[in-house]
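Title: Prediction job returns without error message
Component: structure pipeline
Severity: low
Priority: P3
Assignee: unassigned

Description:
Job completed but the reporter wants confirmation the result is attached to the right record. Sequence as submitted:
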Amino acid sequence: MHSFSSCLIHCVFSTHERRPWLTPTIQKRLWPYLGGIARENEITALAVGGVADHVHALLSLLATLSISKAVQLLKGNSSKWLRETFPELRAQGFAWQEGFGAFSIGVSGVEETVRYIQGQEEHHKKKSFREELEIFLKKHGCHYEPEMLD
């Protein structure tokens, strides 16, 4: 028998110190670029989006690839590309924040999660990234100390 898996993960990661480096012009190029990094690494990116200071990605992972490795590939490759493609980001010291959030999604939650990722701009008119992250952490039963979110 073959091995089968369905591993859908909603990943969230932010810019260093949550700086608003991801302008609409950069976002327009970054979201597809992240999808390309995923594809090159046999990850299916079902949705990629975000706002000026953070990224959301709904990923379907192979059983042989850890979540940490998948996020490392996305952040590492995109960071290099961003600094090369947008010299102003290199001059400003662009980097991704060290950590990330990764939350499992059931197949029945894919459409809702895709809509959520696509609606980030509207969503963040009402909630900050920190508020959003706290909601995710509580919903998924993740233990955290408030200073861990800085």
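Comment from assignee: result matches the submitted record. DSSP finds six helices and four strands in the chain.
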